[in-house]
Design goal:
Helix content: 40-55%
Number of strands: 14
Distance between the termini: 45 Å
Radius of gyration: 24 Å
Structural class: alpha/beta
Mean pLDDT: 90
Number of helices: 10
Low-confidence stretches: none
Strand content: 15-25%
Strand order of the largest sheet: 4-3-5-14-6
Largest sheet: 5 strands, mixed
Shape: elongated
Length: 291
Amino acid sequence: MDINYELYKVFYYVASSLSFSDASRKLFISQSAVSQSVKTLEHKLGQKLFIRSTKKVQLTPAGAVLYRHIEPAMNLISRGEAQLLDSGTLGPGSLHIGASDTICRYFLLPYLSRFHNLFPNIPIKVTNATSVQCVDLLEQRKVDLIITNSPNSHLTPSCIQKTVRTFSDVFIANPAYFDLRQQEVSFTDLGSYPIMMLDRRSTTSEFLHNLFLQHQLELVPDVELSSNDLLIDMAKIGLGIAFIPDFCLTKEIPELFILNLKEQLPKRQLVISVNASVPPAECTREFLELF
């Protein structure tokens, strides 16, 4: 179809904010021009893209399908423009990373510090998301790279991966509430205690649930949270036995001990991934060199 890029650009801004007035302000054109562009695009495509009412704007099913394709395309164009501005000089480019708060705090910070010291003029942006959500950010070209837990069923061959750390997971508890310090505990035994872990949207949850299934056991956690730090705090006050990556235990915590398991937990990895379909910018390549 012979459709002007500007029509898709207007559609993107309206769809991302669900507001004709917001799109007008961001594009520096009149609201009537925004409305006319949308009508022209709808006419050319033969589909209604928005449901308009006096109070709100909604995407139609056709509009939602189009937006899923237009959004990564717009992000790709934006990142391409940034790379041209960069011109291989590490000048006005930027580095955008996706990672969970746990990975940021316990692994990524030293690398961010080193990169900032080497290239103080390069802006660094970090988007906090789960390892699963980070893959979506990478596929939509919203970030230059991601650092996630592995195995991660959402990572695809379109992601170039490099292992940057191997780690183990541990169960921790307060001995004042769970007198298990001198015992060897099995997965079956754990089923009789309150288990606290990350929520179902995480690769950590996926990993442990799959592990229990391999032993023909059902895992029913009592507490599911989005923060490993909060899991540690709750374990301290005896609310349950927490399941966390061992790199979260940067120092000995007097109130807690690590359970001795009968079954050996498989090790996991932290992997850094880039989108294979997008050439990395110079600043992205320099950051990867730190690993």
